[in-house]
Design brief:
This is Serine/threonine protein kinase, bacterial. Keywords: ATP-binding, Kinase, Nucleotide-binding, Serine/threonine-protein kinase, Transferase. GO terms for molecular function: ATP binding; protein serine/threonine kinase activity. InterPro entries: Kinase-like_dom_sf (IPR011009), Prot_kinase_dom (IPR000719), Protein_kinase_ATP_BS (IPR017441), Ser/Thr_kinase_AS (IPR008271). The chain is α+β, with helices and mostly antiparallel strands and about 300 residues long. The chain folds into two domains: about 100 residues, 2-Layer Sandwich (Phosphorylase Kinase, domain 1), CATH 3.30.200; about 180 residues, Orthogonal Bundle (Transferase(Phosphotransferase), domain 1), CATH 1.10.510. Helices cover about 35% and strands about 20% of the residues. The strands form four sheets. It has a six-stranded antiparallel beta sheet, covered by helices on one side. The protein has a three-stranded antiparallel beta sheet with strand order 9-11-12. A hairpin with a 2-residue loop joins strand 1 and strand 2. Helix 3 runs antiparallel to helix 5 and helix 7 packs antiparallel against helix 8. The radius of gyration is 20 Å and the shape is globular.
Length: about 300
């Protein structure tokens, strides 16, 4: 049984050309508009743990999973419909959303380039060293601008990481925030259907200890920067919490010492406050974080 649509298959107004990627929550295709000829990227919701394709229609594996599937499908629809309302140079552009064959599809502009994570891995493989602050600081203004715009719309990305920052090919570095599968209105609490990457997720994303907000994305961005500067990913927030002590010790401090040594105290200090375990101790908005960084 084939999970993905195949080249030549038609869905809505588009003809599938190739599968670009497949993961736990869905499939991404390169497709062409059937009559106008332009290429797009289409994201199909197809969670492989609870659903499959039967005679061309996406269905949950069993009736007991129907409610779970429908709830998650509605979240995907919400992601797509939210992105349709956004217009910013550093946020992926979504043309359309449509619903067909038991599931939902998001139609996005085809970008040429690679992710920040792919660029990082390539550098490590070739030069055997992580990014410098100079390299990261060339990308950060666009990422900060995109997140600030998102937060101004009262939305939180909730899954900021290097693989969700796309670098458009060209003479000028142009980062674009992608994969809004976890996007949520700010001020709410975590839900059971929340999607995030645990290593970057803030404490409030694992437990209802504090509402999510801009400070949640700032934590993930801080973790991402620490990883790119040191070559080491901090342990997840809850494990840091368990290993921390009342005197202020925190496992992340060892990595911040490396940041301080190679990139300077100003950057290490900014990342210290960006990644605080307690949300109220972090920067509360992108403007505060940006002001603390030497950009």
């Amino acid at each position: 049984m084939q999970r993905e649509l195949q080249p030549g298959n038609r869905i809505h107004r588009y003809v599938i050309e190739e599968v670009l990627g497949s993961g736990g929550f869905g499939v991404v295709y390169l497709a062409q508009h059937a009559s106008l000829g332009y290429r797009v990227v289409i994201k199909e919701y197809l969670p492989n743990q609870i659903a499959h394709r039967v005679d061309g229609v996406v269905k949950p594996f069993m009736t007991d999973l129907a409610d779970i599937y429908e709830t998650a499908l509605q979240q995907f629809k919400h992601e797509c419909e939210t992105l349709l309302t956004l217009e910013h140079d550093n946020i992926v552009y979504v043309y359309d959303c449509f619903y067909d064959s038991g599931t939902a599809y998001m139609v996005m502009h085809q970008e040429i380039g690679n992710t920040l994570w792919e660029s990082y891995v390539q550098q490590v493989e070739i030069h055997n060293q992580p990014f410098s602050w100079q390299q990261i600081s060339a990308v950060l203004p666009g990422v900060l601008s995109g997140l600030d715009y998102l937060h101004q719309q009262n939305l939180v990305h909730r899954d900021v990481k290097a693989s969700n920052v796309f670098l458009r090919a060209g003479p000028v570095i142009h980062p674009i925030l992608i994969d809004f599968g976890a996007v949520k209105v700010a001020g709410g609490y975590v839900s059971q259907q929340a999607q995030n990457t645990q290593s970057y997720a803030a404490l409030e994303q694992e437990y209802n200890v504090f509402p999510i907000g801009p400070w949640t994305d700032i934590h993930a961005l801080g973790v991402m920067i620490i990883e790119l500067l040191t070559g080491h990913r901090p342990i997840k927030a809850f494990d840091r919490y368990k290993q921390s002590s009342p005197d202020g010790s925190d496992p992340i401090l060892m990595l911040l010492e490396q940041v301080s040594h190679y990139s300077g105290n100003t950057i290490a200090n900014a990342l210290f406050y960006a990644t605080q375990l307690q949300p109220e101790h972090r920067y509360q908005n992108i403007s505060e974080f940006k002001a603390a960084l030497p950009l």
